Amino acid sequence: MTELKKTPPVLKLEDVAVAYKVRGGEIEAVQHVSFEINRGETLGIVGESGCGKSTLAWAVLNFLGNNGYVKRGSIKFQGQELVGVTGENLRRLRGDQIAMVYQDPMQALNPSMRLGDQMSEVLTVHRGMKKTEAEQRCMEMLDRVYMPDAANVMKRYPHQISGGQQQRVVIAMALLNDPALLIMDEPTTALDVTVEAAVLDLIADLRREFDTAIMYITHNLGVVARVSTRVAVMYAGELVERATVEEIYKNPRHPYTQGLIRCVPKLGADKARSVLYPIRGRVPPPNNRPVGCVFSPRCAFIQERCRDQRPQLRQLPDGSWVRCHFAEKIDPSSWTPYDEIKTPENLQRDLAGEPILEVKDLKKYYEVRGSSLKDVIGLGEKRYVKAVENASFQLTRGTTLGVVGESGCGKSTLIKTIIGLEDTTSGEAHFLGFDITNSIKDRDRSLIQELQMVFQNPDSTMNPSYTVGQQISRPMQHFKTVPKDQIRAEVIKLLDAMRLGANYYNRLPRQLSGGEKQRVGIARALASHPDLVLCDEPVSALDVSVQAAILNLLLEIQQEYNTTLVFIAHDLSVVRFFSDQVAVMYLGQVMEIGPAEDIYAPPYHPYSEALLSAVPIPDPTVKQKYIRLEGSVPSAINPPDGCRFHTRCPRRNLLPDGGKICETEIPPWREISAEHRIFCHLPIEILRDFAPVVTQSTEEI
Amino acid sequence: MLVKDYMTRHPIMVTPETPASKAQRLMIENQIRHLPVVGSGKRLQGLITRERLRVPPTDLGSLNIWEISRLLSDLQAKDVMIKRIDLVTIAPDISLEHAAHIMIQNKVGCLPVVEDEIVVGIISEVDMLAELFELLGGNVAGVRVTIRVPDQIGEFAKITSAIAAKNWGIYASGGVPAPKMPGFWDVVVKVREVPRDDLVAVLKSISGHKVIDVRECTD
Question: Are A70 and A20 in contact (CB under 8 A)?
Fold first, then answer.
């Protein structure tokens, strides 16, 4: 039907340049961007941070702020020019025809208004609808976005619902006025994989149902593969490639696109085949772009022409658009890794060696104080948040344990307990034979030295007034691992290992990029030559190419120093790439633990199965089983009886009586092999029968 | 087959204050023949058609060239549009044949689709023709046969069961009272991937039915 009738594009950008006025001139953040979005189509815009993706989105809505403006080109919405539209017309467009959804739903919602009130405001203000009628419409829309218990949600405040639900409210709000164009700027980046999967499904459904054109901005190649019909790749403010989603992944033409795809670990491929190749260098700042091709300094196929002549975006015979002089001649298979980028061999290590860390039935409860009088004088019943419940595992020297799970499942608490930032409620934990259930205050200095941590956010864990050298040398002075006169040499040696170089010694944290800061964080953790390094989401805040570099670095260091790692991440593809052993946690309970390869293949715990089916995979040819968990993670103060997962388990009806036993009895550990255990009532035979979640399509790429 | 399935969602629209010249340019550039005029909240206020923008030839001679530009520059969408009270509209949840009936009766080529006075789409004769095209399987290759059958219950079933008995599938079908032949119906069926002569032979063998037209279409 849609093929039959040709309709004009909803949004059409022609040679757009966006500039910001700054002190001493102007910066062109975005240049030469042209694309179209048709109705019922999703255009995914990908690229590293600082490539001008968000600037482009703001330019469409004229949200650029006081110093930004569209310098050249035209932005046409439904055939009408948007550049220069102001005042009442702009307000009307924003409210009636174009809607936007941002990354953080909490910032889009007014915390002091009930959700029902802020939603119906859209209708009463823009459409002059009556209050009761508006509320009715809002309720219908909440049902449309699969919000459980919509009537009740309308009466709540934003902080009373979960992040995924907040994002659904924001999406519902954006759709209330039936917009022709929906701009989504990283709408799922802040959400858990399971919630992300549900939101992405929702976006795809709504696009079909409402015929809305969607401009979808993200840095995650997996998400793009799942939602988009076409993809535009941006680099340093320019559009470098534009093609259908199948073409981009099967046959990337631009060297940058090829590089991006080489950076991400793939869940579909096996571990031995997945090697990450980071792109060398980094995105040039907008005021210092090369004269020729913007990507030339980082390109492996650079020729003389690329240095002094800027390529145009041109169409190839197969219909995709690319900005490269040599797109037809470049054969991605002829690409060889750069000499300076080492890609450490990613071997499966032996798990049967000497155990370095043994944890048995570890528990961590936090006491919750009530606010009633009884609680205040200490007579009330004590309640606990059961953050970690009976965690047991062993870690062999030189191996990596990956910990995965949704937010709030106790991943971070587990490693904080191990490192001693939190004391243990009960259970045993031995590190090199020493008991480590006590608080860090009571620990021996030599023990602290052997246990170090890398944090998620390098910004907030570095003293902004200390230079890089000082940051790294502090643990050396403290633990006296290095004689005083050799500290500087040792720090420089570490910096070299991190590929930062001696010239970073005197820099301050603010002079570093995100990836460099994380390298300094890792160097600091390694400074005392620890035996065990605990990494709490060390790469989640980083761009894919930087992430690849950091992961390779960690692998290399692990091989060189034989360091043992505990690695927390919510990205299951990263964990698979990195770990020898994986523990899946849910509500403080380890649900499944075993060698990495076994976790990602049947038999699965039903929760691991659901997590795997939710991971966005950057390859549209890979088939994934469709399993979506309903509802959100229950409160840890009052975890469900029996199996903690029973309230959301999609597999419990395989048991007699619809899984009554799951509600009352704590499940047994099913031993699949010596190392692989699953915490579930389902017998091993049934667990084994689960089909693999991820199947490579037979078609060879 | 409801209006909401075949209408064009998110049509291009203008405000009443848009200059008529801009509205005209929008219609030409985007090759559209109908332009809804909406106020705040996409409330329908009127409709501009290409006819409304046409200057009658008799007026052409009387206009002074200096006057033209002055007149045109002042002209706004609200001055040239068909006003809301003179417009026929439709709701999205209406059957297509009902919409066609309204269009025939009012002799209009397009109906704005409104829900509580808010424009949610537009349906034109082209959308109707698109439906007819799809209904009769215009876009697939196959054999299209027209059979004249008596106006009795059970005649269509004879055709379908004869085709089903051969393990063929009907891709599209339709029936209308035979023109100028009271007591008969003309039934059109389209069958894919079938030898033309075999199909005709099977249909001819049904007593009381007359094959009146056979044609093979390629896509």
Answer: no
